[in-house]
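Technical annex B. To support the medicinal chemistry partners, we prepared a structural model of the target in complex with iron/sulfur cluster, based solely on the information shown next.
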Amino acid sequence: MKDDLPLNPQALDLDEPVGGLASYPPSDRWDDWTEYDPTQWPKKVEKHYSLIPTICFNCEAACGLLAYVDKDKMRVQKFEGNPAHPGSRGRNCAKGPATLNQINDPERILYPLRRSGKRGEGKWERVTWDEVLDDLAARIRLALQEGRKNEIMYHVGRPGHELIYNQRVLHAWGIDGHNSHTNVCSAGARTGYAFWHGFDRPSPDHSKARFILLLSSHLEAGHYFNPHAQRIIDGKMDGAKVCVIDTRLSNTASKADYWLSTWPGSESAVLLAMANVLLQENLFDSEFVQRWVNWEEYLREEHPAKPQTFETFLEVLKQTYGQYTPDFAAQESGADPRMIVEVAREVGRAGSALSTHVWRNAAAGNLGGWQVARALEFLAVLVGAVGTPGGTSPSAWNKYIPTPPMMPPPPNAWNELMWAREYPLAFFEMSFLLPHFLKEGRGKLAVYFSRVYNPVWTNPDGLSWIEALTDESKVGRHACLTPTWSETAWFADYVLPMGHASERHDLMSQETHAARWIGFRQPVLRLALERQGKQFNFTYEAHREAGLGEVWEEDEFWIELSWRVDPDGSMGIRRYFESPYRPGEKIRIDEYYRWIFENSVPGLPQAAASEGLTPLDYMRKYGAFLVENDVYELHRKALKPDEVQGSTVDSLTHVVKKNGSSIGVEIDGKAVAGFPTPSRKLEFYSKTLKDWRWPEHSIPGYIKSHVHRDNINAAKGEMLLLPTFRLPTLIHTRSGNAKWLYEISHKNPVWMHHEDAERLEVVTGDLVRVQTAIGYFVDRVWATEGMRPGVVACSHHLGRWRLKEDFGGERWSTALVDLKQVEPGKWMMRTIHGVQPFESSDPDSSRIHWEDAGVHQNLTFPVQPDPISGQHCWHQKVTVSKAGAEDRYGDVFVDTNQAHEEYQRWLQMSRAASGPGNLRRPLWMIRVYRPAPEAFYLPSK
Ligand code: SF4
């Protein structure tokens, strides 16, 4: 048969499908969509489905899903892409459809559980939701009444509730109680961007780019995987070239036009060398830089004796960055200097159509990693690619955050258990230091919520977390809100089953491209039942009817809990949970979203009316709404006359001020929005860093990482461990119950260059011991050319474990382990057995054919907080050796006393508040769940 013939010859007679290979059921038939039952083939038996949109819960990208709800069985048959979703456009990665595994997991937690033995002992009993809510509400009420506000903490992983839902709850309680995982994730990159333009993320416009410069492997494996990936492909198909800077030969790197395999931590040196080429070869946009960069402030502050002209600035700039020669960058990074020059010239040629992206990896791996993001944005600024078509926008321009009803005022409260004085510029909470802060007696917790978060497993130094969580004098009550079992849930007092992607509400909006959209996650079974005429007060009632136990809708949990904290309204909390439509009565979840869609999403009421729908029904039907398309160059937006009225313009800086706040900047005599920085311009020079005692880093620069080559003694067998890379098929900690995903990915070997493998006399499959500063782990080797010599790498997605044979961990993905404290502070984990087939209501569980569960490396990492961004610096200096006779695959040893010493060593690098004016933190910087301005000041001595 010829290669170009289709398998079925009849296909030759078929017309090409309208719209190419993409094919979706038309939305006017979503209420009753018919397909043949494949299990009945060759008979043609029709099945009827209600197609209900929702949002994937498996990463932050918030892609649209379309749930096919079988109308007879009231079960989700499958999830496909939602073509009406502007970000994902009907497409998903493997993790989207695998949501089906997660909701049908035979081991999922269906009812609330309370521990009945000691914490961590693994004894559980079923309790009612009323018991849980009453107990937690009473403890919260007491803490608030006794002024122990900082003893209530909500610690969130991702995703969901990005759009301020929970801020409403915590601010109504009057607390500064939000803790997040961000400083083990993206704080480094965020800091670098924020010092440039006030906003904390990049939003690349890949599809219109001429050149795409990616740090790390985000296309296939990371942030916004699917929405970015499809647009990078669009860009490539239109002729854009791609450069990937990544130590490891990632899938993305393997498809790129340029791959620079750099020594981890040297990325800023490479980027600054590119900046140097742009400057020396005049490949930059002088007009853009002159207009939008705060060069005048820089000269004023740092070179007051020189002529204060743009020409002087360019001279200084060329001189300053002249030290970053391609040869210097090559020496630091190991990359080919000619390729650095070639890529720089491509960047220059791309001009305003240069799209760039960095998220974790280099920015999250290294001491000073935030300067990687700053150096990358420097390139975008030099070529004028800020907010342009094909360029890179600040994230907030491509995100829409609607206002909910009745926002409580921000509290005058500051929680130093998260926002510690030593880290005044930390971009998010110092969450991963919590066990050490508790150990030092800085505070304690009355009620701790871990919410879709697994710090014992995800964070570095997880055994210090276990020590803290099992100490009831430090943590009074721990409620774990989670759709699945996790290593952290095991050490909780309550395990509370929360809904998955198709069982909850959330409003989502992400910077996937140059537009603003909102997506609506919703409980599809409840909706399908309501379409059949059923009515429910709470979503869990619908779940019960559909056979889903008592899985709660999370918004309803917070409403119900808040109501019970303040049942008579005397604490001023209850009013924020009353219906905007039925005064004095408890808000229903429908009413909450109805109000938002009616009142704070521009264009939605009109779009809905044009289809004869209410705004809520429109969102229930389509699951997403495009608020604005083609959003570019918002910094040029003229201030409106009513904004300008009553404002003043600073004669020196041209900043436009009103009521004590800066609202814009005068450019060419016109008042425009600019950027939310102190100068309202792009800040090449950060006076903030100077004022907060980091003058040496006030401009984009290169900070030698803690894993710089100088700190690694190869002669002693030391190497660098890169532990941050993702697999495209897994999620950190929520995908353990996705059988399709674990069948594909269930190993995380140590990637090692052949030269290193030869030196260590190991081959692929051999065991090695990887020694860190506080312990070691034992893993298999994968010898490859795709890794830089001297560096080893291990994916952070594998190594899940459980402590009981048939309970407390997803058996598709966890190894059964023995975890012992062999001496005070000295912990040893040994695998009893790997993944095994098991009997369950899902016949696939008895067909499991893989044994490997991977190795849990994060346990062996000390905390390494960057003193400026607060980011945990993930890369490790390690000693790798051939495993000894006593070593077993999966072994982990950790000394938590050493871990505390390492914490103290890194703490020494910090430069504590107060800052100017007795501030804890610069007022202009973003702070999540921002408290009242008064809270930013330290108490006077
Ligand atoms: S990229 Fe994949 S995991 Fe992330 S939201 Fe989209 S479909 Fe889900």
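Notes passed to the chemistry partners:
The pocket of iron/sulfur cluster is lined by residues 56, 58-59, 61-63, 88, 92-93, 95-96, 225-226 (CB under 6 Å).
The first helix runs from residue 99 to 103.
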